[in-house]
């Protein structure tokens, strides 16, 4: 069974879990982070991993060089999206912990595999002592926020002092957060596949992801792009999404974002709080919004309908809800979001 068919239904059901805390943290935290390099796979990583298990695998991640003489045997996923990726790479027996488990639900086809993996935290990154207690040698996270010492989390340096290395999703590296792309997850799959000595599993995941993205591209090819505003609503607070992985999801799904990533308000961060007039003046044909669950989705729909009754997106009821967990850097759910949005924007193409 392919991940495409299995996860489409399970992601819809996963909206019953709360996500607003984690997404709000992503909106706020990266502003205080120091820029690091872009995460890319080392040239020899995949070939090294396919040789003897004792060979050293080296990758570059957020400007840091990570080297592993052997496959990590104590691995932690700091977000369900990273836990899912690790499970799909087939390293469940090497997992010493999972974190932020209530931020989003794992897809049904892998959720059972997580049973018995120690839960280090539920709605925020684990406390420093809780993470170090499981003695990890590899910790995978969506952003560098999960390693903010000022928040009480284990820093990358503290992990290193305790024999662990941190792998941050390529799109979550501080200096790439605003320019991240959907295909960055392919780098993460390949890197982690090399580090964990499971290159064949990684290649299967890469191929499946590439085929899904290619299918979307083919289906919408030659179609006129509808204008799209991507927003996040919390109460009466309205934020526009103009850059980052979130904006690339819109582009990949065939939408023309009404917010320009080169605009000053998105120079330092992928989101900006706006006045409703900004949406009215741009008159988008569709609105995409992240949600933390059914209640948040309904509240957002009500806000959009009440606030923008004459905007084409509302008039034509083209309001597309996406689980916030599918908008995190390094999430295989990024592809789910692309497929969902594309089908809504181009209903006759699928």
Automatic annotation (TrEMBL):
What keywords does the record list, in alphabetical order? Signal
Q: Mind telling me which InterPro entries this protein's record contains? A: ABC_Transporter_SBP (IPR050902), ABC_transptr_periplasmic_BD (IPR002491)
PROSITE patterns attached here? Answer: FE_B12_PBP
Key word Signal present: yes
Pfam short name (any one): Peripla_BP_2
Q: Say if the entry is tagged with keyword Signal.
A: yes
Leader sequence segment: 1-34
Q: Where is the Fe/B12 periplasmic-binding domain?
A: 74-349
Q: Which family does it belong to?
A: Belongs to the bacterial solute-binding protein 8 family.
- Protein's recorded name: Iron complex transport system substrate-binding protein
Source organism of the structure:
Nocardiopsis terrae
Q: What is the lineage of its organism?
A: Bacteria, Bacillati, Actinomycetota, Actinomycetes, Streptosporangiales
């Amino acid at each position: 069974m392919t991940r495409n068919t299995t996860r489409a239904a399970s992601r819809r059901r996963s909206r019953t879990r709360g996500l607003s805390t984690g997404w709000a943290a992503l909106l706020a935290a990266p502003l205080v982070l120091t820029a690091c390099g872009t995460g890319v796979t080392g040239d020899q990583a995949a070939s090294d991993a396919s040789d003897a298990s004792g060979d050293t695998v080296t990758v570059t991640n957020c400007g840091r060089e990570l080297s592993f003489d052997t496959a990590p045997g104590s691995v932690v996923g700091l977000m369900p999206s990273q836990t899912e990726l690790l499970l799909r790479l087939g390293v469940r027996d090497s997992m010493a912990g999972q974190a932020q488990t209530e931020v989003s639900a794992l897809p049904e086809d892998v959720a059972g595999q997580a049973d018995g993996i120690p839960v280090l935290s539920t709605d925020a990154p684990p406390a420093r002592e809780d993470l170090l207690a499981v003695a990890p040698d590899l910790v995978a996270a969506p952003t560098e926020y999960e390693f903010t010492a000022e928040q009480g989390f284990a820093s990358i340096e503290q992990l290193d002092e305790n024999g662990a290395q941190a792998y941050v999703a390529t799109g979550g590296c501080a200096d790439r957060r605003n320019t991240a792309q959907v295909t960055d997850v392919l780098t993460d799959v390949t890197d982690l596949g090399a580090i964990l000595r499971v290159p064949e599993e990684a290649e299967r995941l890469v191929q499946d992801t590439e085929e899904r993205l290619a299918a979307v591209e083919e289906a919408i090819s030659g179609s006129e792009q509808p204008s799209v505003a991507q927003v996040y609503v919390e109460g009466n607070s309205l934020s526009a999404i103009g850059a980052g992985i979130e904006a690339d999801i819109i582009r990949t799904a065939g939408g023309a974002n009404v917010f320009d990533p080169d605009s000053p308000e998105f120079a330092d961060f992928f989101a900006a709080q706006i006045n409703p007039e900004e949406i009215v003046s741009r008159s988008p044909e569709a609105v995409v919004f992240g949600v933390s669950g059914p209640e948040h989705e309904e509240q957002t729909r009500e806000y959009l309908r009440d606030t923008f009754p004459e905007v084409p997106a509302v008039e034509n009821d083209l309001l597309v809800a996406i689980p916030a967990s599918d908008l995190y850097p390094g999430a295989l759910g990024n592809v789910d979001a692309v497929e969902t949005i594309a089908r809504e924007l181009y209903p006759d193409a699928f």
